[in-house]
Amino acid sequence: YDLRNEDLKDLQELGQGNGGSVKKVEHIPTGTIMAKKIVLIDAKPSVRKQILRELHIMHECNSRYIVSFYGAYLADPNICICMEVMDKGSLDGIYKKIGAIDIDIVGQVALAVLEGLTYLYDVHRIIHRDIKPSNMLCNSKGEIKICDFGVSGELINSIADTFVGTSTYMSPERIQGAQYTVKSDVWSLGISLIELALGRFPFAESEADDSDLSDLEGTLSPARPGSMGSIAALSLPPRPPKSASSKKDKRKSKGVSLQGGGMTMSILELLQHIVNEPAPKLTEGRFPVMAESFIDCCLLKDPDARKTPKELLDYPWIEQAKSSTIDIEAWTQTF
Ligand code: ATP
Ligand code: MG
User: Fold this and answer.
1) What is the Å distance from ligand 1's center to 333 Cα?
2) Are 148 and 91 in contact (CB under 8 A)?
3) Per UniProt, which keywords does this protein have (predicted)?
4) For the CA of 22, the nearest atom of ligand 1
5) What residues are annotated to the active site?
6) Nearest residue by C-alpha to atom 6 in ligand 1
């Protein structure tokens, strides 16, 4: 496809994230229906072109566990990324609609994500870097696929500069400034699976309620790879001037969504919690032991002890998911 903005007709909004919005569009010349993600990027033209070049390898990412890529183009000041539409949306949207997801379906999610991560790393040496339920998509054919992986170093840098949200799925070693590895994705997978199985973000239950600290959310801008140092080294930037853009306010309100039962945990508290406290677990007794111990394995705080996606594909709960006859297509008809 030779994609141009004027050839794409908006059909419907599919969702909004921190960095931009996603619309269902029709590519008029071919009649192809696509999901167009608009990413606002504050970068020089040379950097934008570099990002486009880097996105090109997504054309080579062909796997049934990866959302297909149609192409990307510049539409000042945005970059538009066109991909396959997944008509049942993301797993965060699904659990927010239907509640906690059945553990056997969660097993299928774990299997698909591990297969997708293994493909990306083994074939392309790509680390995903943003595993979370909103980047796990599902369609009415019963397919589960991952999207929004970090193919472009420049794109990661450009977005990271203006970004807070994702840090909540970040592994303890990443919070402390270590490089990303495939094992950081495994941590994020473990957090995501608990979230799907419980129907809520696992860190939401906090004793802490410090509204002063939660004020900082709009001003912390951590995620540039490698730049964060350690929590202890995080210095608190001055408050932004009152004129801080409404975009920032939107991000902030998303950051504060770490609430549950009237308790609030600020981003800073949450990051400290991830580093210092025991990892979350599936509630004991409510789920199969195999699922519990798989998730414990994903959430080993020491990255050296944590397994890679490929190793986890041999884990008993995943082997069981491979031979399961569960009908995901039928499940998607229930919502
Ligand atoms: P963040 O900005 O923190 O990464 P996000 O992943 O929700 O959050 P986007 O990647 O911009 O943000 O996606 C916004 C929403 O659009 C998603 O939550 C998902 O529901 C929907 N979406 C994204 N890609 C597709 C797609 N290919 N098909 C269908 N829906 C999609
Ligand atoms: Mg996304």
Assistant:
1) 21
2) no
3) ATP-binding, Kinase, Nucleotide-binding, Serine/threonine-protein kinase, Transferase
4) 16
5) 130
6) 134
Report CA torsion sign: 233, 190, 113, 122: positive
**Residue owning tokens 């239907």:** 98
Closest CA to 204 of 265, 144, 163: 265
Confirm if 39 and 81 have CB atoms less than 8 A apart: yes
- The residue whose C-alpha atom lies closest to atom 21 belonging to ligand 1 is 15
Residues whose CB falls within 8 Å of the CB of residue 257, separated by 6 or more in sequence, listed in order: 201
CA–CA dist 227, 40 (Å, integer): 22
Alpha-carbon gap, residue 335 to 322, rounded angstroms: 24
- Enter the tokens of residue 331: 């499940």
Residues 171-229: tens digit of each pLDDT: 999 999 898 899 999 999 999 999 999 999 998 654 444 333 333 333 333 333 333 33
Q: Kindly list the protein residues whose Cβ atom lies closer than 6 A to any atom of ligand 1.
A: 14-20, 22, 35, 37, 67, 83-86, 89-90, 93, 134-135, 137, 147-148, 165-166
Please tell me what DSSP assigns to residue 66.
B
Amino acid type, 100: A
Which DSSP string corresponds to 88-121?
A: T-BHHHHHHHH-SPPHHHHHHHHHHHHHHHHHHH
97 annotated as ligand-binding:
no
Residue-wise pLDDT tens digits, 278-323: 999 998 899 999 999 999 999 999 999 999 999 999 999 999 999 9
